[in-house]
Design goal:
This protein is mainly alpha-helical. It is built from nine helices and eight strands. The strands form three sheets. It has a three-stranded parallel sheet with strand order 3-8-7, with no helix packed on it. Strands 4-5-6 form a three-stranded antiparallel sheet, with no helix packed on it. Strands 1-2 form a two-stranded antiparallel sheet.
């Protein structure tokens, strides 16, 4: 029972300290991390109070202009990285196709795999939202720009060694189906690959590395459809939904066009 009181006292002390900080310390007015001005205290009016808009704006101001905002956000991201489960490649995940069986005449790797003809030196450069204001929402979503052109982007946490087991699964399908069935592999990037502002690069990892690793591990019989470049070439168009990680019909069209080229 005595230990319970100690724990309760510690928790109460933490809450009291945070209360003092949030109520008495100077509010933040600008976020260097997000490169934007923070919310200001709203102007009072009886009409806004009656409609509830005033209290809503006060709530937004209170949460947006918290003291030491950038410091707390940086600590939160570092804390998340520390707790994140890091997996080397896909070795810790068991798939039914975890062991790749080379086909006849194959020594492994995908150097002879049928790959769509893309520029091997292609590197996407964001010219659409590179300099846009952005912030990280409480759910970890990167919010870019302002309405009506705002985007909500889901961060990507994979690495250069990711996707190996996925490629092995595709290889297993080809092995089982044989030469009578064509097996294609198309890895679809999410929207943040093309619309992440420079200031938010540390919040998400590049997906091209994972995609290239998948293509690298495909067996020669699997037809790879790499749509990373063609989507990048049309990133200035509405190829992705703005508040969803899925592509739009236009983005799907460009991917289908690339698929048709590979399929012949």
């Amino acid at each position: 029972m005595r230990h319970n009181y100690i724990y309760l006292g510690l928790i109460a002390g933490v809450f009291a300290m945070l209360t003092v900080v949030f109520l008495t310390f100077p509010r933040s007015t600008y976020s260097e991390l997000e490169k934007r001005d923070l919310a200001t205290f709203p102007e009072f009016s009886w009409e806004k109070l009656a409609s509830g808009k005033f209290t809503e704006e006060v709530s937004s101001w209170f949460s947006d202009s918290e003291p030491y905002r950038d410091t707390l956000m940086a600590l939160s991201m570092e804390f998340g990285k520390t707790l994140k489960l890091n997996i080397e490649g896909d070795d810790a995940v068991t798939f039914h196709a975890a062991e790749q069986t080379p086909q006849e005449g194959e020594e492994g790797g995908n150097e002879n795999a049928e790959v769509s003809k893309d520029d091997p030196n292609y590197e996407y450069k964001n010219e659409v939202t590179a300099n846009e204001n952005a912030k990280i929402a409480h759910s970890g979503i990167v919010v870019v720009g302002n309405a009506p052109n705002a985007r909500a982007l889901m961060a990507y946490g994979g690495g250069a060694e990711g996707g190996t087991a996925y490629a092995q699964a595709a290889n297993k399908y080809k092995e089982k189906f044989g030469s009578e069935v064509n097996v294609y592999c198309m890895v679809i990037p999410t929207a943040i690959e093309y619309y992440c502002p420079e200031k938010m690069k540390k919040a998400s990892k590049p997906q091209s590395l994972t995609i290239n690793n998948v293509m690298k591990h495909l067996a020669p019989g699997v037809k790879a459809v790499n749509i990373h470049q063609i989507l990048g070439e049309h990133a200035s168009e509405d190829i992705y939904l703005r508040t969803d990680h899925h592509w739009s019909p236009l983005g799907a069209y460009y991917a289908a066009k690339k698929f048709a080229e590979v399929a012949g």
